[in-house]
């Protein structure tokens, strides 16, 4: 681990700011936040509701852009990228796992997992191979032709993870991945994420659960848009 | 990629069966209607195009003005065709047609009444494209007593096509030789005859008279651009020929004639314009009008627009359900382009399915539509050549139009927002959707008002007091078949118990048998004091049999021998002449030289109350009646208590007098109805289309209300928990839509009032649009909308609030 820290970090945000404005109130979601995350790290972000966790995750995932500050991803400054450029960078580098799975109801398990490969232009035969590979790994191969509604929550989240990793992203962003699961299924998901991390994928996870956070290497605690504490796990 | 789009689209549609059904059904209905109307319009527009030389063929029309009388004719002078061909090198050929009326044609021992006979010049087959199966086109119509018949007619009379050289017997006494068999004339032809007699058979065709018009005259130009040149030379031509004859016969120069405000003029109409744009005196058959083409095309476009609007409305309303999918796809790397393509694929898929359904529906509805429109439209290999590509085009076009808004709207969602559920609660695009609902309902209300006005006007025509009584009048046609026995027949019929009266003449208010003549107020035959009325030959029983009313003087009487020089005027004629009582004198030239001793003097014996004899579109013109034997028809006023027995007695009398010729009869009220068939058909078609438009609009509203209720489930739940009643909630949900219908009423009512008044202007006798028609249309639209919306609103309102709150 120590050796990796000498390389340039995968993610470096500096003085990042994000505001939400309504007609009367301006809410500060992120307040001059600076964080570095190295390649291969597993980081948990925690904090009370409204502390800016999700905002941070959206910006890290290039779904949203900051109002001020810098965001360097793999040595590229992306803070002011256009939507199109962000989308391009995103689809090749980042996988997402959501609390509510966000599978497309009209597509089967196989087709849901295949979708990111279609958008990155992978050829059909190669797609089948890679989807089957990842479904096998997630142990849901037998469900490949089912629709999301036919699966349990745990199975749905495994499909979602399969979909997140099928493109072999360098970074996985997980937003409370166990939030809708019982503890047994939740543990399975955490084991899967840990496995992926051990195989080299960087993981950033937002969570409310101290239990889940213990799977990570480092916990960043946010309050009112600022980092108040970092715990290094041993 | 496209496979994935289609797959997702297909499954999405399958999942939302209700939505899909409404969308496809609405579109299919719209497209089917559109297709039927297109067939109708194409049929109307294709008249006479079967002629390969159509672009070079023109008909010569004539405008005549005599004093204050004016007439527009579709016929010209007997020598015109020949003269045009010899005088103008750019006239390649010319042909005359003269309607020969009804004849009996002998088949075996019986005589069949045929009414599609015409005299034609030999050049007929050079000008018109009437392919000859048997015989020689160049010589078939040269010899007198030659006849060319159609394929169907040949089969009917000879059971064979190989009939050249055989003989047909006309009116039981005139043999004619069959010299050719042509293919049946296409239905889209402004004239439609089964028998073409050689013009040389008709002695009058050799007449050199330039002052009367009774031949439909067509010219074939070498180049269509010469039409202007030809038309420009007409005044000179008329001065030369008609002028010379006027000088000789009437001792009047054409300059003096024109100076008095009268004129002869001729003009050209392109052959292909005749069916839709010409309705003159002396047409070879009833023509159509462009008015209905415009109206129907507009309806087709409206209905299609309503269906498209449904699609857009329902798709965007459903957007919140699709928003999450858009978000996920964007997160996974899809850009906007892909999403737009995906949604467009989906809408084109829906239109495509709807198009197929529409095509099938149109196939099944076609016989019904034909019945309604009186056409024989067909979807066959010929029409499929243009129907299939145009359907594909329409489905792509409609799919793109209907899908464009949802595609751009949905693809613009920000993934962060939708994944957070920010959009789910909003019923977005509300303003556009309101606009579209208003648009749909404005059209529907417009169509409802239109239908009511047309219906009322037709009803008015049918019940209007026409100045005569058309009920219980039996018309026996062509009494001239009985020759001298005609009078005997009338006498015998009058004696049958149950017959109240009978009058013998072909001149009836409901018949097409018309004749005009010129009458003068003074014996010098001064043009300025002339009258150009309908001039009818009637008998003493005419006024009484038809229940007309005399406003002055009396009807003709057997007891008054001087009545043979008597004349009855209608009110219009009397007014035109400035006569307000009888004891006035009128003069009529007897043809040939207009000299004092060549003039007949008439004394006015009575003035009859105006009666309608033309379409009610036209005002009543002047009519004069003289006492003379005319055996065109015998109209019998009957007691209908035992009609079958009465009829068989009348038939028996006929048979005794003429065993070989069949009796031919009809009822006057039926003939009257027949003359308004076009209007009646239009009315019916209008009603059907209006209903369709309303059904489609309601389908959309129904779907929209369902989504509105769905979107507000949570709000409804909260309101119910706080104590709102079912009716309060149903009212709240309905209110928004009802408001839109009110706005539509405000927009549509004045527009419909204005345009329908314009339509009514075409009728000389017409209704005023009553206020209740407008109110009724508004109330009907409101009622339909309330029923549609409240169904959904009540369903939403009675749902258990716990369920709706748990959903969030």
UniProtKB/TrEMBL annotation, chain B:
Residue ranges of the ABC3 transporter permease C-terminal domain? Answer: 298-412, 687-801
Keywords in alphabetical order: Cell membrane, Membrane, Transmembrane, Transmembrane helix
State its location(s): Cell membrane
Q: Does the keyword Secreted apply?
A: no
- Looking at the UniProt entry, the stretches that span the membrane are 21-42, 292-314, 339-366, 386-413, 434-455, 685-709, 737-756, 771-791
Q: Which residues form the MacB-like periplasmic core domain?
A: 20-234
Pfam families according to UniProt: FtsX (PF02687), MacB_PCD (PF12704)
The reply on keyword Transmembrane is yes
Q: Which InterPro entries match?
A: ABC3_permease_C, MacB_PCD, Macrolide_Exporter_MacB
Membrane topology type: Multi-pass membrane protein
Q: Which superkingdom, per the lineage? A: Bacteria
Name of the protein in its database record: ABC transport system permease protein
């Amino acid at each position: 681990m120590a050796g990796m820290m000498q390389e340039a970090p995968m993610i470096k945000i500096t003085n990042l700011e994000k505001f939400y404005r309504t007609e009367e109130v301006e809410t500060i979601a992120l307040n001059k936040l600076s964080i570095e995350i190295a390649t291969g790290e597993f980081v948990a972000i925690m904090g009370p509701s409204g502390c800016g966790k999700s905002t941070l995750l959206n910006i890290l995932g290039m779904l949203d852009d900051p109002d001020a500050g810098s965001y360097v991803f793999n040595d590229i400054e992306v803070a002011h990228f256009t939507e199109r450029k962000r989308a391009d960078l995103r689809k090749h580098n980042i996988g997402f796992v959501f609390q509510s799975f966000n599978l497309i109801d009209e597509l089967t398990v196989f087709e849901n997992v295949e979708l990111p490969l279609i958008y990155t232009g992978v050829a059909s035969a190669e797609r089948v191979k890679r989807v089957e590979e990842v479904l096998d790994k997630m142990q849901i191969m037998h469900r490949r032709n089912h629709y999301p509604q036919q699966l349990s929550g745990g199975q749905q989240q495994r499909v979602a993870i399969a979909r997140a990793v099928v493109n072999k992203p360098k970074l996985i962003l997980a937003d409370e991945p166990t939030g809708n699961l019982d503890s047994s299924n939740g543990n399975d998901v955490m084991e899967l994420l840990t496995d992926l991390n051990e195989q080299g994928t960087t993981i950033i996870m937002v969570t409310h659960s101290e239990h889940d956070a213990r799977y990570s290497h480092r916990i960043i605690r946010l309050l009112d848009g600022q980092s108040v504490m970092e715990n290094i796990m041993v | 990629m496209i496979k994935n789009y289609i797959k997702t689209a297909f499954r999405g549609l399958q999942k939302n069966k209700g939505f899909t059904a409404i969308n496809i059904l609405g579109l299919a209905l719209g497209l089917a209607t559109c297709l039927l109307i297109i067939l109708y319009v194409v049929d109307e527009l294709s008249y006479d195009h079967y002629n390969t030389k159509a672009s070079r063929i023109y008909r010569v029309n004539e405008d005549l003005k005599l004093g204050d009388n004016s007439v527009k004719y579709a016929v010209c002078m007997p020598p015109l065709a020949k003269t045009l061909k010899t005088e103008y090198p750019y006239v390649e050929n010319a042909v005359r047609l003269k309607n020969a009326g009804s004849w009996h044609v002998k088949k075996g021992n019986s005589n069949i009444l045929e009414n599609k006979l015409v005299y034609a010049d030999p050049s007929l087959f050079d000008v018109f494209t009437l392919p000859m199966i048997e015989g020689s086109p160049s010589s078939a119509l040269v010899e007198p007593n030659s006849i060319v018949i159609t394929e169907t007619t040949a089969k009917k009379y000879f059971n064979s096509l190989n009939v050249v050289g055989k003989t047909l017997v006309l009116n039981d006494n005139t043999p004619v030789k069959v010299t050719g068999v042509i293919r049946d004339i296409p239905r889209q032809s402004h004239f439609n005859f089964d028998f073409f007699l050689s013009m040389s058979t008709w002695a009058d065709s050799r007449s050199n008279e330039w002052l009367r018009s009774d031949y439909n005259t067509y010219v074939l130009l070498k180049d269509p651009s010469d039409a202007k040149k030809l038309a420009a030379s007409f005044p000179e031509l008329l001065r030369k020929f008609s002028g010379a004859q006027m000088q000789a016969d009437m001792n009047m120069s054409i300059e003096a004639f024109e100076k008095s405000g009268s004129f002869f003029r001729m003009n050209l109409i392109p052959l292909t314009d005749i069916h839709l744009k010409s309705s003159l005196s002396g047409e070879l058959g009833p023509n159509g009008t462009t008015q209905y083409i415009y109206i129907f095309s507009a309806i087709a476009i409206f209905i299609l627009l309503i269906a498209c609007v449904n699609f857009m409305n329902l798709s965007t309303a459903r957007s919140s359900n699709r928003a999450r999918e858009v978000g996920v796809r964007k997160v996974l790397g899809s850009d906007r382009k892909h999403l737009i393509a995906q949604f467009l694929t989906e809408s084109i898929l829906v239109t495509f399915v709807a198009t197929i359904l529409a095509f099938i529906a149109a196939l099944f509805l076609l016989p019904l539509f034909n019945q309604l429109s009186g056409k024989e439209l067909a979807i066959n290999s010929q029409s499929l050549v243009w129907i299939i590509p145009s359907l594909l085009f329409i489905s792509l076009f409609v799919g793109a139009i209907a899908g464009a808004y949802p595609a751009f709207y949905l693809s613009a969602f920000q993934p962060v927002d939708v994944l957070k559920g920010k959009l789910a609660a909003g019923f977005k695009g509300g303003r556009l959707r309101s606009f579209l609902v208003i648009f749909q309902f404005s059209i529907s209300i417009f169509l409802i008002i239109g239908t009511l006005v047309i219906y009322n006007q037709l009803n008015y025509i049918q019940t209007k007091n026409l100045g005569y009584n058309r009920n219980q009048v039996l018309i026996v046609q062509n009494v001239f078949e009985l020759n001298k026995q005609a009078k005997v027949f009338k006498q015998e019929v009058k004696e049958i118990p149950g017959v109240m009266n009978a009058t013998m003449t072909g001149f009836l208010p409901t018949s097409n048998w018309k004749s005009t003549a010129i009458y003068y107020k003074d014996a010098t035959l001064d043009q300025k004091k002339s009258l150009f009325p309908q001039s009818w030959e009637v008998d003493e029983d005419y006024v009484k049999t038809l229940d007309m009313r005399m406003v002055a003087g009396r009807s003709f009487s057997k007891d008054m021998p001087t009545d043979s020089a008597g004349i009855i005027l209608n009110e219009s004629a009397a007014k035109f002449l400035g006569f307000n009582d009888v004891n006035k004198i009128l003069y009529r030239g007897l043809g040939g030289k207009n000299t004092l001793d060549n003039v007949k003097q008439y004394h006015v014996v009575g003035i009859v109350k105006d009666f309608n004899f033309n379409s009610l579109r036209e005002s009543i013109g002047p009519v004069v009646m003289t006492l003379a034997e005319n055996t065109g028809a015998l109209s019998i006023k009957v007691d209908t208590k035992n009609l079958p027995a009465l009829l068989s007695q009348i038939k028996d009398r006929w048979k005794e007098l003429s065993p070989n010729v069949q009796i031919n009869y009809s009822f006057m009220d039926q003939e009257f109805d027949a003359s308004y068939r076009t209007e009646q058909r239009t009315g019916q078609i209008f009603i059907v289309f209006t209903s369709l438009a309303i059904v489609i609009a309601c389908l959309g509203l129904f779907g929209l209300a369902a989504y509105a209720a769905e979107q507000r489930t949570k709000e409804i739940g909260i309101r119910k928990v706080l104590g709102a009643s079912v009716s309060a909630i149903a009212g709240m949900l309905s209110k928004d839509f009802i408001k839109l219908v009110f706005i539509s009423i405000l927009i549509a009512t004045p527009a419909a009032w204005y345009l329908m008044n314009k339509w009514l202007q075409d009728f000389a006798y017409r209704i005023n649009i009553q206020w209740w028609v407008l109110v009724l249309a508004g109330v009907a639209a409101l009622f339909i909308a309330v029923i549609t919306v409240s169904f959904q609103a009540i369903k939403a309102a009675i749902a258990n609030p716990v369920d709706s709150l748990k959903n969030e």
